[in-house]
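stuck on this fold:
=====
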Amino acid sequence: MNHGSSISVVTTISLILSFLPLFNLAQDYGAVARKKWLDQARVNKPVLHERLIKPVRLGILKKDTNAFQGWKVETSVAVDSLYQRGFKSQSGVIVDFGEHFTGYVSFSLAAWGRTPDAPLRLKFTFGEVPSELAVPFEPYSGSLSRAWLQDEIVTVSEVPSTLTIPRRLAFRYVKVELLSPSIGYDFKLTDLQIKATTSATENVASLLPNTSPLVKEIDRVGLRTLRECMQTVYEDGPKRDRRLWIGDLYLEALANDLSFKNHNLTKRCLYLLAALSNKEGYLHGTVFERPEPHPQEGQLLFDYALLYNVALRNYYKNTNDRETALDLWPVAKRQLELVKSYLMHSGLIDYDRAAKEIWIFIDWKDGLHKDVAIQGLAIYALKQTYELAKSLGKEHELAEVPEMIRKMSAAAKQHLFDKKTKLFLSGVDKQISYASQIWMILGGVVSKQEGAKIVNTLIAHKEALKPGGPYLYHYLLQAMIDCGMKDEAKETMLNYWGAMVEKGADTFWEVYDPADEYRSPYNFYPINSYCHAWSCTPVYFIRKYPEIFQD
């Protein structure tokens, strides 16, 4: 081998070695950082505060066409009567804990009269709202697992005994039924309690004294909703799903920033999502923390991935935690590739292709066309990410983003805005929806004055597709406030969240349609979550804008 050949071989080997890190990166984007991110998530895992809660009264379940979903629980007698009589005559009793709690239920049984000589079988049905105790679960027609429904059958082999139901539960009411009694003896319940858990503190600043009673009540219910969902991650709902979703994380963090101020929980969730991104570096819309942290594979959400960037910017603004923001900056930067990959030369997102390849959520609303909304949301996320980049001295890494924003905004005005209706139209049938207008306003595609005209036109339009639940209603309030429509924002909060309060809500619901109380995205309304994270944001608005909501 001559000297020239030796140089060639050495050079070739050096080039191969130099590219190995890039090959590894291609195999798993962010692989080197995953362990560090996961370690940070573990370090910031909160300690749960525990309280033993006793029931406050017994109730009677009654059908009432004026009550939410047609059922209510009326107070009957004090809870002590449950413990002072044999249970055979009380089977089917409704026990009311007075408020919504999340945690672990225990109960004790004691003999009543003759010596126990056989096992007992009890059925517990737990309800966040009264209808869950009244509506038969079988035959089950829902599209989610039947196991989410909170009914438990417990066989007790020995009396006396104390038992804890292993499954964590979320409820206000519990119905207790005796399924298999002993012929030879009666028994009594001597205790029923819940070890309630939350990572939220009890120290929250009071509202201004002249705040209206309804706003105070909306705030109280919102705080309880947030508190129940603040476990070792921001859960979407403590009854069902019980995991971390990006969309819920962002809204919960907004409310938490101005109430409980548990910023380490936000930090944990941001790191957990980053650590569990897919090999291309894109974020899963939802992840699990138990038994070991893992993502829901294949659950990529276009809009949620972009909202992660907004959540990270919001975290940095509220904590000045530059180290974390810099650490997670590559994750945020990576999510913008989703926009680039679906952006057409025209400046519009290729919605048809995107919708085939990735989930676009926007709202739980049947028949909603989402092409306009995702265009506006993407512009909003680009702007928020660029602001984060500037605050970190990283704007040079996003040099192309300002032009993207300009081009996408111009395309939206040119191709999606209808000069006749003065609204943004979506889909081939030119659908008019709140979602489309909201995200064009939040994205800054229109001016403040134009946005106000759009909202007023929208409100007057009887055929416009309204928001499907509290998630999009949050963004409607923000759009109104951004347009200077303070009175309309307050009225919307009072009419929407206030209506839930007036219907007896202890916590705010995942889905609420004033025109259809039985609406469910899952084909069976008892499977709905009646304590749901994304509905807690009146807490944010009331405190962020006291001149609107506390005056």
